[in-house]
Amino acid sequence: MRVLRVSHRWVSIVAGLLLLTITTSGSILLFEPEMRQLSHPSRFHVTPGAHPISPQTATSAAQHAYRRAGAPTRVVRNRGVFEVALGDTPETIVSVDPGNGHVLGATKPERGVLGFLSNLHECGLSCEGYPGYVAALNKPMPDLGIQGIDKITIGDFALGLIGVMLFGLVLSGIVLWWPGIRRWRRGFQVRSHKGRYARDYDLHKLIGIVALPFLAMWAITGMNFELPVVSKAVYGVMGADPGPDPTMKSVVAKEGTPDIGIDRAIAAARRLAGGGALTGANLPDAQDQTSTYLVWFAHGIDPVRNTDYAGMLGIGVDRHTGRAQALYGRLGRPLRQMLWSDWTTGAHYGMFVGWIARLLWLMFGIAPLLLAITGMSTWLYKRAKRRERKRRRRASVPAMPPL
For the packed helices 262-273 and 55-65, what is the interaxial angle rounded to 10 degrees? Predict the structure, then answer.
């Protein structure tokens, strides 16, 4: 138990700053969509109308207003308005009123404070084009004998390693907290009148055990995002390894063959989807005749319905023939696959609930900070006591008489 206690303490101390950085940035990003809307309310104005414009019309309006921004890559319906992405990173997001087709403005979300926090929390500062980008962290990891590890960047591996450390702290924390079956209630008591050490020690254990479900969830989902071996292990236990996602290419057409267009692609995808709310579409590469449309729908409770890119059912559509094929999501997949593949992102960020319910994620998101404060307090108290005992022992040793 002493070895476990010492290892728990030193992992917390060594990795504490990294853990606090990641959890604090994640707590802010929980409300990124709402913060963007509050900071630029004019870009989310919707004019009521019986005949809203189509995604194709919205895309054409955005291109016409921002000709130099680049080719369109994506059109989504976000918080009532159309948002059209133009160009590469840093992409320009143009808002279009669906009621009258007016362009409401544009922004580059990869820039600014939120862009830096996204780069830090989601990429480990390895996302090129985002603030804080560090080229060295975008290098591929060397092969360490772990499956798939050489296919991720150093920044991604660092984030995955932080998830591993957090998960280790969760497991060791459970063991250290457990007071025994007969005394389990003591694990939820705080001795507020027994001095600073007893109070902070009890608070540390109480905060840790109450926040444990969220801390464990963040550790596991965070590892899953960055380390391919985690998903493989989970699917192996569940017996539901989906294998690689299906791929689709458009037929090679004669030069000059027209593209079917966004609206026809959406109509073809809708027939295959069999219902659900249209959330957006990724557009084919203008320079690649084999690239396809990827149209997204939300069915039932969408795990990412409050993000800027809702919808978990992705339908690929041939840009020349209109042939549709399910690529992502529920069609043809068992429930045990969807619970992991579809819900890890929604659970990690709480994006399947509104901002009020997401305050619960925020509350537990600051738990690592409270754990760091109470843990450091007890450690400093014990260190001060040890030094005091050593000083007293030295003072009690009689001086050697002179020769």
Answer: 150
List of long-range contacts for 123-131, beta carbons under 8 Å, 24+ apart: 123/153, 123/155, 123/156, 123/159, 124/153, 124/154, 124/155, 124/156, 124/157, 124/158, 124/159, 125/155, 126/153, 126/154, 126/155, 126/156, 127/89, 127/155, 128/89, 129/88, 129/89, 129/90, 130/89, 130/90
CB 294, CB 329: distance < 8 Å? no
pLDDT tens per residue, range 61-100: 999 999 999 999 999 999 999 999 999 878 999 999 999 9
Paired sense of beta strands 324-328 and 103-107, if any? unpaired
| Predicted model pTM | 0.85
Q: State the Cα–Cα distance between residues 288 and 276, nearest whole angstrom.
A: 29
The radius of gyration of the chain from alpha carbons, rounded to an integer in Å, stands at 27
Reported as a single tens digit per residue, the pLDDT across 247-301 is 899 998 777 788 999 999 999 999 999 888 999 999 999 888 899 999 999 987 8
